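[job 0412] stage=complex_fold ligand=NAP status=START
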Amino acid sequence: MTLLITGGTGTLGRPTVDALRAAGVEPRILSRRPGSAHAIADLQSGVGLPEALAGVETVLHLATNRRSDARATQRLLQAARAAGVQHLVYLSIVGVDAVPLGYYRAKLACEHLVAESGVPFTILRATQFHDFVGGFFSAQRRLPRLITLDVPFQPISTAAVAERLVSLVTAAPVHGRVDDLGGPEVLPMAELARQWVRARGASTEAAERRVVEWHLPGALAAAYRAGLHTTGQPGPGIRFADWAATRDGQ
Ligand SMILES: NC(=O)c1ccc[n+]([C@@H]2O[C@H](COP(=O)([O-])OP(=O)(O)OC[C@H]3O[C@@H](n4cnc5c(N)ncnc54)[C@H](OP(=O)(O)O)[C@@H]3O)[C@@H](O)[C@H]2O)c1
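[job 0412] stage=complex_fold status=DONE, emitting structure tokens
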């Protein structure tokens, strides 16, 4: 199979490239930057897309810039249709149709573009990556207090998402969404923060003192508090606490 992956240099893309290779699929990696196995192209301008897609049967679309994903996805779909791509797998986020966040509206618009493109497709929605949740905490690592919100998260390892994506790109298109994918447990953000602090060597008491939980008003916080970004059932992969223990120095 000739497979092109967008976003293959990103947080999820790197382990996904590794998982594809482990499954015997050598991907072509669409990137704006030169590198091994890279096809240089820019999804915003469209430059390089026809060359990147030449001879491609399957596209795994992970790229994002968190601002203009609909435009990038539209360009990719037009080029994929012209190139005769037989299957496009798109990664979205759990709750994009329920949580009133601008980025989620853009991801939902991308889902619609994919569904209406005429290219055979499969859409997977995943919950937040461990890296994303851990990023909130590491950004505050030099502060005396670690601020959290009174919302739950169901973080998942990128390895688990990558494994699911490999199974989807090697199967037939479903012309719709497959079951949402979330991590193994739903926990309050404050508990995840305490786990992150403890993984850095703090005692249980010190972690308790360091983490502060805020309550935000408004529809966005209410949607997160209601867990509209979680799947309602435990999923695969390592737990956040075990992932945090492997992230020395972050
Ligand atoms: N973060 C989460 O918790 C989470 C949860 C669920 C789903 N997702 C989804 O997972 C996907 C991957 O997220 P991530 O956090 O791994 O992303 P990321 O680390 O921010 O990586 C972004 C990727 O997009 C590529 N990209 C950006 N603009 C581009 C352009 N104009 N042309 C070509 N490539 C471009 C970059 O490639 P180059 O820089 O090499 O060009 C890079 O590989 C996204 O679709 C995201 O919505 C994320």
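The chain has a mean pLDDT of 97.
[job 0412] exit 0
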